[in-house]
Amino acid sequence: xxxxxxxxxxxxxxxxxxxxxxxxxxxxxxxxxxxxxxxxxxxxxxxxxxxxxxxxxxxxxxxxxxxxxxxxxxxxxxxxxxxxxxxxxxxxxxxxxxxxxxxxxxxxxxxxxxxxxxxx
Length: 120
Fold this sequence. Notes:
Number of domains: 1
Largest sheet: 5 strands, mixed
Order of helices and strands: EEHEHEE
Number of strands: 5
Helix content: 10-25%
Shape: elongated
Distance between the termini: 20 Å
Structural class: alpha+beta
CATH superfamily: 6-pyruvoyl tetrahydropterin synthase/QueD
Strand order of the largest sheet: 3-1-2-4-5
CATH architecture: 2-Layer Sandwich
Radius of gyration: 16 Å
CATH class: Alpha Beta
């Protein structure tokens, strides 16, 4: 079994409003540089690859366009833009078109933070 991954980056702003904590620094508008990694798992086909990386890149380009330089709180279907919800959103948006999808990870490298989602 092989795992093949493709990464993309996006810049975005968000707030994480906690109505019970008005002094919460995360409730102020702020932004991050995000890195997302999508992993596909399987056995190589007759061409010798698990996934056509060019096709995967095209599909990820569409989701990147929806996230890059956006205010994440305004994206329909995302919910509160936590790392967890961003991972799950990417998964939901591509799962039907990416056979063998096994993992979506989103990182904020400058913060040393990230999240991995394996569906479900």
